[in-house]
Amino acid sequence: MSWQQTLAELEAGTIRAANKDEHGTWHANVAAKEAILAAFKAGENITFTGPYQGFVDKHNLPAREMTVADGVRLVPGGSSIRRGAHVASGVIVMPPAYINVGAFVDTGTMVDSHALIGSCAQIGKNVHVSAAVQIGGVLEPIGASPVIVEDDAFLGAGVVVVEGIVIRKGAVLAPGVNLSASVPVYDCVNQVQLAKGADIPERAVVVPGTRPMSGSWASENGLNMACALIVKYRDEQSDASLTLESILR
Predict the structure, then answer these.
(1) Which of 99, 136, 211, 212 ranks highest by number of CB atoms within 10 Å?
(2) What pTM does this model have?
(3) What is the pLDDT of residue 248?
(4) Residue 59 φ then ψ, to 5°
């Protein structure tokens, strides 16, 4: 399949940059990512005209021009959806926000102001991506899985998720949570530390925390390092606190 056809199918959502297997494990679609890299290699920098006058980028990876038929509400004010990104009907994008090539944003999701959906990131149905959320992109290494946010998750303001972390269905990340393969996550409900880079479990409620640094000097100076804490799992009460989002859509 040519890179042109791959980009078209990524936009249509008929193929994705990552897929879930029968065991629920996500895997990168290496062929799709190779095609995206081929598109970058084939592209030549040009100065765009028209609505994107003055911008310089690869000629074959322009911003998409959405229409009413797409069913996406792309609010004016500086947002951009790049070619090769799938944004499903029913998605709302508030300005300014950016959705990069290979990303998949499913129906009913809200992408709020100053949010980034990085290359190949996969965002499920009815996800709330709050203001200033940063979802990292992963094109290389080619076999690395991108960040995955499954259905019904809620990402609070300023959340950062990078390095292929998977946020499972219905999880809630409180404002300011930072997750990467090197950030330890402690499940205070089950009293265990998750393995490095482990998935955030379904319906987990995660808040930013700290832990003491090792070493006598760090201890003497009261130094702490950032971590993430699972403080509860969603119940009827916590679900009710999220209904405001559905009212505003």
Answers:
(1) 99
(2) 0.93
(3) 44
(4) -65, -25
